[in-house]
Amino acid sequence: MTMARTLQEYLAHKGIAYDLLPHRRTDTSINSAHSAHIPADRLAKPVILEDEDGYVMVVIPADRHLRIGRLNQLLDRRMGLATEAELTPLFGDCDPGAVPPLGDAYGLPTIVDESLDLCPDVYLEAGDHEDLIHLKGAAFRRLMRGSQHARLC
């Protein structure tokens, strides 16, 4: 598989320049960062949560863990991790486990960890397990402008 079509169309529609960075096939975001020789704190990974009101994408650095309790407090909700089976219909053009952290492209509300706002460069999964997208930090911030930003890690 190559870059997800939804992602390609979304970036083109937004006028965002990017580079595609191939790497050996990996099974996790942290392994993708190591394989591509990039800092793991600059690889944005999505965490998809759900409750009875729907799904939310939280975008955090690959080397960090989401504090779900902090998120629930912020949103005044009781969210839990979505299952892989739930993600398949939401991200149909992506390989399981290789979801791009751009919730807006897939119609999901998105919250971004503030630490990513400071990165000069940001990398994203491209929808497969063998490519990353490289964005300038300003381009990433432009894509995330409509998202909520908070300290969640």
Automatic annotation (TrEMBL):
A GO MF term: aminoacyl-tRNA deacylase activity
YbaK/aminoacyl-tRNA synthetase-associated domain boundaries: 24-143
Coiled-coil regions, chain positions: none
Gene3D superfamilies with a match to the protein in the record: YbaK/aminoacyl-tRNA synthetase-associated domain
Database matches in CDD domains: YbaK_like (cd04332)
Pfam families: tRNA_edit (PF04073)
Protein name listed in UniProt: Ala-tRNA(Pro) deacylase
The species this protein was found in: Thiohalophilus thiocyanatoxydans
